Amino acid sequence: MSRGLGKGLNALFPGESLSKAESVEKIHVKSIKANPYQPRKIFDEIAIQELSASIKEHGILQPIILRKKGTTYEIVVGERRFRAAQLAGLDEIPAVVRNLTDEETMELAILENLQREDLTPIEEAEAYHGLMENLKLTQEQLAFRLGKSRPHIANHVRLLTLPGKVRDYISEGKLSMGHGRTLLGLRKKEKIALLAEQVLKDGLNVRQLEKLVQKLNEDVPRETKKEKKPDLFLAEREASLRDYFGTNVTIKKAKNKGKIEIEFFSEDDLERILELLNE
Predict the structure, then answer these.
(1) Helices 139-146/102-115 angle, 10° precision
(2) What is the pTM of this model?
(3) What pLDDT is attached to residue 21?
(4) pLDDT the model gives residue 14
(5) Beta bridge pairs of residue 32
(6) What is the CA 264 to chain-centroid distance, rounded?
(7) Rg of the chain's alpha carbons, rounded to an integer?
(8) HSE-up (13 A, CA, CB side) for residue 38
(9) Which residues belong to the active site?
(10) Which residues of the chain have pLDDT under 50?
């Protein structure tokens, strides 16, 4: 697929309006299936109920977008309207049927939700990861196609390296994306889930968590501690590099030499860091 999607849905579905060759059809709801590439896993049931009540009173004001798949149809855009129509007891729903590839359907389903800010950070991360895996794209290429910055893509994808329980907390809104990114800075990765529990228990905000992670990272065994003042210049440079690379960075200095350690959590994360080093 050569065209970029950075221009948004309107570049492909201008207001979901119809071209001269298209028309609205009435499609039976039992013939319609959910989009297998739908990135959103959590639907606001109250919002669906409210939309359903509106549909009962006013009908569906905007047709959904479908694609033919065998003897049935798959939703491309408009799953909320479809669910609300089902709840309202409608037998048929107005729709426009378009000829789209799996690739186009996947990208459009993700883009629609991104533009409407319907995804949780974890759903967004999984969507980006799925696109990169299925379309064989780098983070840079995906960022260009979706009109996002590369750091935006990278910071979301890194969330997928968090323990499952912590990802669930973010999806449920109990922890923010900022909490998740900060937890990834903990050197003892096996302690991330426990620290997340502490964050919830104590109601820590992101800034408080950052200070706690910094303290835990500095809490080395007594026998390895050296009684010397911290190098504020190096600490400032470490913080700057952490922000740039989106991961934990440590500068270790000896007499006339030293080394910089940059952590990565997966092959994709390593590729992301290498791309940054080449910029």
Answers:
(1) 70
(2) 0.60
(3) 58
(4) 39
(5) 73
(6) 19
(7) 24
(8) 17
(9) 79
(10) 1-17, 220, 222-227
Res 15: pLDDT: 42
The amino acid at residue 120 is: T
Residues in the chain: 279
Residue with tokens 């071209």: 19
Give pLDDT, residue 220: 47
Dump pLDDT digits (tens) for 136-171. Answer: 888 888 888 878 888 888 889 999 999 999 999 999
The structure tokens 């049927």 sit at 97
What confidence tens digit (pLDDT) does each residue in 170-201 have? 999 999 999 999 999 888 888 999 999 999 99
Give me 128's structure tokens.
């980006």
* Rounded (5°) CA angle 184-117-171: 40
> H/E/C letters for each residue in the chain?
CCCCCCCCHHHCCHHHCCCCCCCCEEEEHHHEECCCCCCCCCCCHHHHHHHHHHHHHHCCCCCEEEEEECCEEEEEECHHHHHHHHHCCCCEEEEEECCCCHHHHHHHHHHHHHHCCCCCHHHHHHHHHHHHHHHCCCHHHHHHHHCCCHHHHHHHHHHHHCCHHHHHHHHCCCCCHHHHHHHCCCCCHHHHHHHHHHHHHHCCCHHHHHHHHHHHHHCCCHHHCCCCCCCHHHHHHHHHHHHHHCCCEEEEECCCCEEEEECCCCHHHHHHHHHHHHC
Give the residue carrying structure tokens 């840079």. 140
Contacts 24+ apart (CB under 8 A), 130-133: 130/37, 130/39, 130/106, 131/106, 131/107, 132/157, 132/268
